[in-house]
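Late entry, calcium ion complex.
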Amino acid sequence: MRVVKIAEQDNVAVVVAPTPGGEPIEGTDLHALCDIPQGHKVALVDIRKGDPVIRYGVVLGYALEDIPAGGWINEHNIELPSSPEVKDLVAGFKGRFPESVPERKTWMGYDNGPDLPAGSRNMLGIITSVQCVAGVVRNAAEKIRREILPKYPNVDDVVEIVHPYGCGVAIKADDADIPIRSVRNVSHHPNFGGQILAVGLGCEKLTMDMILSPEENIPENVIILQECQGYGDMIDRICEAAQRKLEILNKRKRVELPLSKLRVGAQCGGSDAFSGISANPTIGYAFDLLAAGGATVMFSEVTEVRDGVHLLAERCSDEKVVEKLKKEISWYDEYLARQHVDRSANPAPGNKKGGLSNIVEKAMGSIAKSGHSPIVEVIGPGETPSCQGMVFAATPASDIVCGPSQLASGIVMQLFSTGRGTPYGLKAIPVYKICTQHSMKKQWPDLFDLDAGYVVTGEKSIAELGTELYGHILDVVSGERTFAEKYGLYNDIIVFNPAPIT
Ligand code: CA
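Prediction complete; structure with ligand written out below:
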């Protein structure tokens, strides 16, 4: 039977299909000692009572009895450790880079100047300070795309950043900082090339000075609808400003850039039992290669990593990073506790049946997206990183909230892994979708950019597919279009707002 082993040091692997006792274990001289259900773990070596059980390169728990090689590992024969309290987390400095990295270390992007991440696309962003203006802005953007954009062939698209925040909110609430900085940072996205075109209503709580710098907050950049003479004037003024911005953006050209100018994010959604076996570790491998080359790579989804957070702490590069990790995780625990929501992703009976022995193992399936690199920074939702390397952005796991949060953090491409399938996309950046199994790719051949099913079947190793993915990422940020882009599939910009609505 075919098995998938994730990390070199793992002493267990997962069987990809139901395995009858006596069946040989592919790639080893072992036989299954009993019937092992699909997705469950088989011991690759003799594991003695008290020995660590290692999967994803981390200790999932300790054997409660001797488990001979070929034996079935399940929730009954490993100890179920509880994840430590947040206050007890300590840096372990255990992050590591891959031993060999590809030669290709540059990409073709739009430079935004020293110390700023570069763009993967050249776009005019029309930003908004309140949802009330959304209809006008959408119509104006449509007109610009139809009538003005064709004159500027070097500009890829016009993106209206309409979002639900801005008014009818407790703007001075403690947590209002999260949506405010998210709108501010989305407005300054690397793909918009520093050009500001902002539309406001005039009486909203989120005023332009909260989004823009004093130099940016000038009449050439800002249109306030309550100062316009009717609908026609609104559209005309937005189109005129857009034309001026497009003139400038059209002069931008792709140049060869180092990986240090690149910022890429990942999330998963609609996961299945193979997410943590094929797609997520493949992303993790590619992310490690990118991080080793100096790029910034970002993973998120607090509720999905919560129970493995001590393993993230172990990879933190210094105590300051762990302190920020504690702060963000504690904030999220309290946010959930306010509504009496359980923070733990305790495996449901179905999870255990599917082979996930404990909560740490379940979290590791999601954490696998982050590979093994040192975690150099932890940021809050909508914040931007200040250095290069592996970054944990503490956003919700919700696909449609995590996406815009990472967008605000300045990612210029997002990898999205899924087992069940979703046509999710973001308009301002390429979203690259990876399915976990061949069957999913067969069902939606024209929606998945990569099929990680090759890892399940053994046609490719995680290292092989992860290295391929590394190349695809550099192709996409250099201009190659994803399926979501070709079809114009994108979701709304749902800004994370944990503060009260009034
Ligand atoms: Ca998600």
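The radius of gyration is 24 Å. Will revisit in the morning.
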